[in-house]
């Protein structure tokens, strides 16, 4: 047993955050979602699980813990942190000192003798509350020796705080260093702007352990960083609703209709788009469409969409039996320490794709046995027959930018990007059926909007696809263009070409491998055109005599 107030978890995501043993555990959610109270509960739980020293004379188990809380200013700390802390540990319990830094010392009785009622297991806790104010992070953390630290409203705190805290937790035990259990840093925040250090640390960064033996030993089976995203306030499963007044979110939405930034971050728990652009896919929902992992199914075809050019990219997807578009991985090249795509020729890119497939999807063999067929494809002497020879090979399919089939000098005298890459991967590459922007965007948008069996999203993407993910959030957008000198403007009709657009194009080509879906999009487009023509009294629409004319 543990004496004191027992509060229910505000929801399943908060409960998983509470149970996390990660060295750094973060929870991100809407305003009012119960993050602060959950952090108070978690901090106390960390304190009481420290190992005890047993007193010889009576067998009393004695634990000790020091926990630290940090906020930007003391007024904010008092108003937001302590008001919740006192719901978990009342101010009158033990001794609370209001001087700076604030200190709360108290004893938690974990077990008692069933007959005498005397404590048999106790934990003496010291909680220290500090505010940064106008001091440096180094100054405010200097001398701290604590079992665990909590950075409240982490996105409002300096980015260098986390590195400093990492050297302060796990150092405290007045009894024996071996009695310290699971030192942790916990953080809470509303969804930050994508340029905020908190977004980059908790969402963008890859903290896989790799093969570092020292790190693996230090963590002892724990993750290095775990991030828990609560549902948006208007989504099914929104947390802490039972503890909020009626209309809590509806009133905020009504008063902030013109402030999309506020509604996205504080209500819907969505990363904030760039302020100078309009996202191409506003339908993208971080919680619904992102999964920690998306497993490869060897029994189904792996589709590789590729965007050509000097900054090529590849996206690896599958469709399951219900038609869900599943994005497994991305391949794009960045110079070390840079955030701009690196220029890569078709030979090197083809080699990179082949290596990536061998490492990530070893069941797929890109054999050299068909070099003669590929030679005919590469030379253009028998491309169609070459494709027919590969019709039985359903393990993998490559689709690329239609313009990649042209020669590098557009004269037909040189090998095309498609032919060069195909020779490196030992498989044919099919040009996408069309390069019409509307069709490409719809090929991704339709599964994104779909709901399979009323509950499963039609589109899901592995969290590791960092460039795609940032593109969906805001990087892949329509650029705002000023019109006149009065401050008005409009958005471009095509997405801006940048580091995010190439991998997005590759995804679109992969999504277009579903011929039925593309045919439906094209058919709907043509039907609209014919209907518009009839309405105009022309009796029909002229679709020309090209590939997509329907003739």
Q: What topology does this entry show?
A:
Elements: H1 12-19, E1 24-28, H2 35-48, E2 53-54, E3 61-71, H3 74-88, E4 95-97, E5 102-112, E6 119-131, H4 137-141, E7 148-151, H5 161-166, E8 184-189, H6 197-204, H7 213-219, E9 225-229, H8 248-255, H9 260-267, E10 277-279, H10 286-289, E11 290-291, E12 302-307, E13 313-319, E14 325-332, H11 346-360, H12 371-379, H13 383-389, E15 396-400, H14 417-425, E16 430-431, H15 437-449, E17 451-452, E18 456-457, E19 459-462, H16 466-475, E20 477-482, E21 489-491, H17 501-511, H18 515-535
Parallel strand pairs: 1-8, 1-9, 3-6, 3-7, 7-8, 11-19, 12-15, 14-19, 15-16
Antiparallel strand pairs: 2-3, 4-5, 5-6, 10-20, 12-13, 13-14, 17-18, 20-21
Helix pairs in contact: 1-2, 2-3, 11-14, 12-13, 12-14, 15-17
InterPro entries: P-loop_NTPase
